[in-house]
From TrEMBL:
<comment type="function">
    <text>Could possibly oxidize fatty acids using specific components.</text>
</comment>
<dbReference type="GO" id="GO:0004300">
    <property type="term" value="F:enoyl-CoA hydratase activity"/>
</dbReference>
<dbReference type="GO" id="GO:0006635">
    <property type="term" value="P:fatty acid beta-oxidation"/>
</dbReference>
<dbReference type="InterPro" id="IPR001753">
    <property type="entry name" value="Enoyl-CoA_hydra/iso"/>
</dbReference>
<keyword id="KW-0456">Lyase</keyword>
<keyword id="KW-0443">Lipid metabolism</keyword>
<keyword id="KW-0276">Fatty acid metabolism</keyword>
<comment type="similarity">
    <text>Belongs to the enoyl-CoA hydratase/isomerase family.</text>
</comment>
<dbReference type="InterPro" id="IPR014748">
    <property type="entry name" value="Enoyl-CoA_hydra_C"/>
</dbReference>
<dbReference type="Pfam" id="PF00378">
    <property type="entry name" value="ECH_1"/>
</dbReference>
<protein>
    <recommendedName>
        <fullName>enoyl-CoA hydratase</fullName>
        <ecNumber>4.2.1.17</ecNumber>
    </recommendedName>
</protein>
<dbReference type="InterPro" id="IPR029045">
    <property type="entry name" value="ClpP/crotonase-like_dom_sf"/>
</dbReference>
<dbReference type="InterPro" id="IPR018376">
    <property type="entry name" value="Enoyl-CoA_hyd/isom_CS"/>
</dbReference>
């Protein structure tokens, strides 16, 4: 049997997904994204999983969409198939948190895939960029939308228009990355963070993720109302009773809904 393009592994309550085209620096063909979306949906539906980590190889998280595959495509090919609107866009519907553990290159679609995750933890050798302009195209999966929200308009313009890469330290300063860790500690740190998330009550984890994502979509007052209603809803759960009782009793909570 041939090697999977995305390897999956379960570590406790964490689902680990590893992009597995190392020779092509994890170039993101449609087949890779199909496998990734299917594996993520599987973990999302699995009651024993509370969070996921997505990673690549030491040299590359992913160096972008597959240029060899795209090279011959015409407008009609991509338009009729709505390239990026199907399997790529479906990643947005994953409800459980996904941490991108980025080592090496995260370029083009690779940077956009990391940004589609909920948290980016970067190794100190990570390099982020949107070099599509050098190929005569532009980013297609959030490089002109998620990136300016994460790092400011000025820096997004700089990265997208010049195609330069930024290192992990700059990415953290700019707000794209939540933590930078030594490359040797990347997986430990990402898996620990995911395990911590997976130990919380799942309804509050999912609602917190949805509320933060909502803050990118509409007005502040709509977002505040969305948050408040979700906050109210959590008072209907046994886990709210347990979490608050555990605090008062000075013990660790035993959440039922994980
Ligand atoms: C297909 C790729 C690839 C890619 C690397 N490879 N990136 N194949 N698509 N995006 C392949 C190379 O062809 C090569 O294959 C092998 O991986 C190793 O790459 P090298 O270039 O030899 O490695 P190196 O010299 O170390 O340079 C690393 C690099 C460079 C700086 C990351 O590979 C590079 O610039 N890659 C392209 C980055 C890019 O432009 N990304 C944006 C893609 S467009 P062989 O067979 O020769 O060994 C995009 C659109 C997004 O992402 C739209 C939404 C998804």
């Amino acid at each position: 049997m041939s090697e999977p393009l995305v390897k999956t592994e379960v570590r406790g309550r964490v689902g680990l997904l590893t992009l597995n085209r190392p020779k092509a620096l994890n170039a993101l063909s449609n087949e890779v994204i199909d496998e990734l979306a299917q594996a993520m949906r599987g973990f999302d539906a699995d009651e024993n999983i509370g969070a996921m980590v997505l990673t690549g190889s030491e040299k590359a998280f992913a160096a972008g969409a597959d240029i060899g595959a795209m090279q011959g495509w015409t407008f009609m090919d991509v338009y009729k198939k709505d390239y990026l609107g199907g399997n790529w866009e479906s990643l947005k519907r994953i409800r459980k948190p996904v941490i991108a553990a980025v080592s090496g290159y995260a370029l083009g679609g690779g940077c956009e895939l990391a940004m589609a995750c909920d948290i980016i933890i970067a190794a100190d050798n990570a390099r982020f960029g949107q070099p599509e302009i050098k190929l005569g195209v532009i980013p297609g999966f959030g490089g002109t939308q998620r990136l300016p929200r994460a790092v400011s308009k000025a820096k997004a313009m700089d990265l997208v228009l010049t195609a330069r890469m930024m290192d992990a330290e700059e990415a953290e300063r700019a707000g794209l990355v939540s933590r930078v860790v030594p490359a040797s500690r990347l997986m430990e740190e990402a898996l620990d963070a995911a395990a911590t998330i997976a130990s919380m009550s799942l309804p509050s984890v999912i609602m917190a993720k949805e509320c933060i994502n909502q803050s990118y979509e509409g007005s502040l007052s709509d977002g505040m109302m969305y948050e408040r209603r979700n906050f109210h809803a959590l008072f209907s759960t046994e886990d709210q009773k347990e979490g608050m009782a555990a605090f008062m009793d000075k013990r660790k909570p035993e959440f039922k809904h994980r």
